Structure formats: C-alpha cells, structure tokens
Amino acid sequence: MNRTAMIDKLNEILKWEYAGLIQYTQYSFVLQDLWRGVYAEEFRESGEEALKHAHKVGDKIVALGGVTTVERGEVKQTLDLHEMLEYSLEMELRHVRLYSEALALCDENDVALRVMLEDLCLEEQEGADKLAKILKKNDLSLAVTGKAQHRAG
Ligand SMILES: [Fe+2]
Ligand SMILES: [Fe+2]
Questions:
Q1: How far is the centre of ligand 2, averaged over its atoms, from the C-alpha of 27 (Å)?
Q2: C-alpha of residue 1 to centroid of ligand 1, in Å
Q3: What's the pLDDT tens digit per position in 4-33?
Q4: Cα–Cα distance for residue pair 139/25, rounded to 1 Å
Q5: Of the bound ligands, which one is closest to the alpha carbon of residue 126?
C-alpha cells in the first residue's frame, strides 16, 4: 500500500465527515414545522454517526504516521426539508465514493484497514439507500409492471 496516498485519501474522507457532522447537525437545529418530529432526531443521529466515523478515520491517519486535517468540506445550508434530504443524499453518496476510493488503495494484506473501510462504506451505503427511498429515487415501475403482467397471466 502506498502509505502517503492512503493518508491523503483518509484526510479527504475526514474533511467530508466533518462536513457531514456540521451539515446534519445544522439541519437538526433549524428544521421546523410538523416534520421536525420525524426528521430532527434523524439528522442529529446522522451528525453523530459522522463524528464517530471521523474518530475512526482520524485515529487511523495518525496510526499510519500522518497528521489529521482540520479542514472541512462544503456544507449546504437550507431551511427546506426536501433540500435537506437531497443534500444529505449527495453527502452520503460522496462518502460511499470516497471510502470506495480508499479501499482501492488497499493491498491484499491490509486486512484490518480494509475491514474498517468496508464497514464504514457499508454504513454510508445504507444511509444513501434510506435517503433514496425517502426521495423515491428508485424506479419501481418495472417491478409493478411485472406484477401486473403476472396477474394478467
Ligand atoms: Fe460517515
Ligand atoms: Fe454518512
């Protein structure tokens, strides 16, 4: 494994976990109206998850001989719930991509690092899948059509 490249990639991840922490926590603060009861806690928890991920990644950066960044990625602010969910999905998909890129830098014998990155990547993908369902991003028309045909047959 190219250690410098891995440290750089992990620092890029850390920067975007910090962005997630701030963005989600901001949404949990400012969200109002009836949906606050449903989503404020969700956003608060997503912020906490980002901080947990940041802790894991930051500890690993130093374990590899690197220094952790204090930069953060861009935070998208809004007061609109639908936009919050869209920006959250963008954030999760970015995290999935970044962890996948870090995994691609692993050699076969970097077992523990790979497992850590896989676990984190899985949590990002689960977050993305959940948001995609809330935002109805998946086209289920094929399945519905199939069912209709089945019934007709
Ligand atoms: Fe994360
Ligand atoms: Fe996430």
A1: 14
A2: 23
A3: 999 999 999 999 999 999 999 999 999 999
A4: 30
A5: 2
